[in-house]
Amino acid sequence: MKRMFFSKLLMGALLVAAIGTVVSCKDYDDDINNLQAQIDRRATIAQLETLQGQLNNSIVAAQKTADEALELAQEAATVAQLDAVVDSINKASADAAQKIAASIKAAADAAAAAQKAADAAAADAAAAAATGETAQKTAEEAQKSADRCSTARPSR
């Protein structure tokens, strides 16, 4: 009888010790802060708006150059003046076309960079969400284990 009592007592002590060593917690604050810092370094909407403003300014400047060339053409009265105006219009149009082409290329490059940054930010956010879900599951498992421990221990 004593042997059976001590055997059950020893088994209970081993069970309590095993459960106590299995439950552990990890602090995820550093991981979350690191992921948030990575997201903050990505392209922002303000940068995209700045690039859009620059593109709009280039378009306005090109339009102004074209308008000025048109005014020069309307003011010309003689054939010689018209030839000179045509030459200046052609030059202004070529310059405006080059400026517009450069602006469009810069906008396309900026849009591609912004898309790449947005894709990377989305991937980082997905990874952060996965880490958060893992942390949540771990916390739930720890809570369940703690609940089992508290129900298994007799209250004094």
Concise synopsis of the structure shown:
The chain is mainly α. It has helices at residues 2-22, 29-40, 45-75, 79-152.
Which stretches are low in confidence, meaning pLDDT under 50 for 5 or more residues running?
none
Helix coverage percent: over 70%
Count up the domains. Answer: 1
Question: Distance between termini?
Answer: 26 Å
Q: What is the alpha-carbon Rg in Å?
A: 36 Å
| Shape call | rod-shaped
The sequence of SSEs as H and E is: HHHH
The percentage of residues in β strands lies in under 5%
Description:
This protein is mainly alpha-helical. The chain has one domain (about 1-150). It is built from four helices and no strands. The protein has helices spanning about 1-20, 30-40, 45-75, 80-150. Helix 2 runs antiparallel to helix 4 and helix 3 packs antiparallel against helix 4 (about 80-150). The chain is rod-shaped, with a radius of gyration of 36 Å. The mean pLDDT is about 80.
Features of this protein?
0% strand, 156 residues, rod-shaped, mainly alpha
